[in-house]
Every structure is written in C-alpha cells, then in structure tokens.
Amino acid sequence: MLSESEQNRLLQLNMGDGKTSVIMPIILCRSADGHRLVRGTVLSSLYPENTRDWQHKVGGMLGRRIYPMLCRRDLRITKQIAEQHVRRCEMIRRAGHFVVTVPEHRLSLVNKALESAALQHTENSDVGASMKLMELLRGMEQTGRDFLDESDELLSPKYQLVYTLGAPADMDGGVRRWVTHFAVIQSVGDHALAMQDIFGKDCVEVTATTGEARRAYEYPGVRLLSGERSVDAFRWLRQQVLSDLLSKPSDVHSSLRTSLTMEERVVFEQLAMDPQPPAQAQQAQLEDRARSLALMLRGILTHEVLRAVLEKRWRVQYGAHPTRIGYEMAVPYRGKDAAQEQTEFGHPDVGLSLTILHYYQQGLSETQLKEVFERLERLAEGEKKALYRQWADQVHKSADVEASRLLEGATSYEGVNLEDSDMFRRKLYPVFRRHMGCINFWLQRK
To answer: Structure pTM?
Structure first.
C-alpha cells in the first residue's frame, strides 16, 4: 500500500481486521509526507464516525489535522473561493495533513469545474473559477494520492454524478416514451401470475393476492428474484410484452400501434429484440413512428432496462422523495423508506419506469387524485366523458364487486360531483387511487 509505484493497487482484507480503524489512518499519515496531497474517501453514512475516530487518533496522538472537502452543485464557487481552495490544499500538502471526503463531493468537484466553464448554459458560469478548479484538479493528479475505504462500494455505478446543462428538452419520442413505459409495465402486470406459475415463486415474486391481481385496472406488484431461472423468466416476459404491444387490443397501447406488413413486422421485432440490429437499409422499411417505437423497446427489453427495474425492491431501493417539494420522480433509496438526498437515477428510462412502478404500487394521494379530476374537468366535454367512462368500464370488467358497488351512481361523468367531499373520499378515492389509467393520466400531464 505504501509502494512508490504510480500504478493503481487494489487489496482485499478480511472483515474485522482493522482496515478502517487501524490501517487507513496509518496509511494516510504515512503518505502525507509534505510532498503529496493525500485524500481519503469514505462512505457518506460512515463519514461522521470515521472522521471522529481518525481525528482522535491522528490528531490527538500525532498532531495531524483532517480537513473536509465539500462541494455541491448548489454551492456558489467564485474565482476567489476557488483560489482559497487551491491555497488551502497547498497548505495541507506542505504541512503533512490530509483530506477526508465522500464520493458525492469528490465527483462534484470535477463536475463543478466543467459546469463553471459553460458560459451560456448555467447561471453558475464563471470561467475564472473553472480555471482555478482545473488547476486544483491537475495538482491533485500530479501530486495527490487517493485512498478509498470500502472501494467495492465506492466504485459502484450507483455513485455516478451527472450535472445537466442547458434548457430541458423532450427525449426521443416525447410523450410516446411515457406511453411506451405505461404499456410495457401494464403488460408485465397482466402476465405476472402466469410467469410465477411457469417459473416458480423462488424466481418471481407477486406481492398482490390472487384476487387483487385479477383487477385489470391495478398493478399487482412484480419482482424478479435472482436465481437460475431468472434469465429464462425475463426472456419469456419480454416476448409477451412485445406480442402485447404489437397485437393485443388495449386503450393504453392504441396510440403506439402501427400498421405493419409481415416483412415490416419481422424487421420491427429484430430491431426491438435481436442483440444485433438489422442493417440500416432494412430499418428504412419502417415508418419513423414504428422505428422510434422499436428503438425505445430495444432499450427497455434488449438492453434490459425492464429487468433492472423489476429486480429492485420498492420502498427499499427506490420510491418517491418524502420532502422534495415539486419533485415527483422516483429516487434511489439507501434503506427501508430512506430516500437519498439530492440524488436521482442517471438513466432516464430507468427513472421513468421506476416512477411509474412507484405510483402503481403506492397509489395517488387524495391531493393527486383531485388534480386528476380537476384536469379532467378542463378537457372538452366529449373527451372527459369518454375517458371517465373508459376508467369506470375497466372497474366493472374486473369483476370487483366492492369497487362496482362503490361506483353506483357514478358510472358516468355526469354522476361525479367534485364539490361533494364525502363522495370523493368514500367512493372515488378507494376505487381510483391505484387505477393505472388515472395514474397514467396524472403522470403524462405533469
């Protein structure tokens, strides 16, 4: 670990052998020899405990100081502040002290240097600050040395940090991308119990009871478990999803369906499912809408976005953030009902799918469902009546006696009185809070 070699090294020691409490402080102190800027990176959850322990050992016993390195996107860094960072790091290096930080702040320093140089894209643009931060990063690269505690965790892709620049723009497909995710996840729910029957409960977990899963308008809750047959289960599932989107009549799928000849369908399926996509000349046979849909499905199915999201546990690995006002996308969780602060999923399709899965399983709050009916009221007369009739018919077709009883007198939009709070709370909310059509309508118009 103290080798003079400039190559990276990775060592593995047994748990409980004193890596963090004994070896790390020794290595940090030994490496901080006045010639190198030494930086230790620890897990965010362990930062207070580790720094407190190391301050006691290396500060109280050896007179070495531990300095934090804080950097977040919401911190304004001017040229003067960046110069202070450079001078402080130089002082730390010469005095033989060292820096302890967390992965989010270490990665944010790099992004901040690039963001500050983006003259026309952000209010935080400051070329002078960018040049000083780049000087700091070059100094760390030339004279610095990094030590990562729990490197297997710190180097995980979940610690990626992305700064967005420029004005927001729709992804390829626009609203159809949301509808594609709606249709895919609805298809997953339709085939959940069949997949569990084929591949077993040790491979597929369905969280709803059999009776609840028969409600066609509600999502049953599905998770793929790790096991020998999980790969086969996902291959079977993605074939069912593609078949549904191409042929199964559905109100959700109707905006996605395109008329394909036999030859075009073969090209469509190859583009959506085959590891090696068809040649450009073959893809040109498809209309732009069909080709765009096939490419979206390719990302979800062939590149296994769907598998990645179905392997995650709701409310343990993802869910809505309880305190971020105005932000309604799903975010990563670090534990049961514990959302990570100021963190988002870096892959947009993963974020879309997990957001939909969260609301399908959590359901809408009373405020959110009221928003649905308020927006419904603003639609044209014929459109809002047809849409509500569609939702009510799905409830009746599900053979859910209790839900049908609750909707008595409100089977058509004319029977809905939004000013009647008792009707909303006792009839509309229990029936429609987890209705996929209502949730799709709410999410699609956010």
So the answer is: 0.80
